[in-house]
Amino acid sequence: MATTYQIAKLADTFKAAGEALNQRIENTQDDLSYDDLTTLTNKAQDLLTASESLYELATIQLEADSAAALDKLSSATDDLNKALKTVATVQAAISITAQLVGLAGSIITGNIGGIAVAAEGIVNAL
User: Fold this and answer.
1) I need a surface site. Which of 14, 22, 63, 119 has the fewest CB within 10 A?
2) pTM score above 0.70
3) How far apart (Å, rounded) are the C-alpha atoms in residues 121 and 36?
């Protein structure tokens, strides 16, 4: 199917042709027979009606394109949220690891106060 832009450009062309034909009819109506005038007027009206239909089709196509883009944006947002949760989980794991290193250092050095603080930090991180 044609793009929204292509449909709109075709509608512009039909509209311009219909308006040009109407202008031509207006400029030469005294020289035209009734049948010619009726035929040309009907053709101009057909062109203008077709342009309106094409504009409507372009609007429908734009709506469909927008819906697809919103679906992609929603999916990308979900992926980003999952990635942020993963980053938060990794950050929490790093924090707990740092607390464990601190606890290990306090145990090795026999720092009783440091052991209590490090243990509390680990519990809070969980």
Assistant:
1) 63
2) no
3) 93
Q: What's the CA angle centered on 36, arms 31 and 41, to 5 degrees?
A: 105
Average pLDDT value over all residues in the chain:
88
Domain boundaries, the chain: 4-125
SS (H, E, C) the chain: CCCHHHHHHHHHHHHHHHHHHHHHHHHHHHHCCHHHHHHHHHHHHHHHHHHHHHHHHHHHHHHHHHHHHHHHHHHHHHHHHHHHHHHHHHHHHHHHHHHHHHHHHHHHHCCHHHHHHHHHHHHHHC
* CA gap 21, 32 in Å, rounded: 13
Residue 14 burial (C-beta neighbours within 10 Å; 0-12, 13-18, 19+)? buried
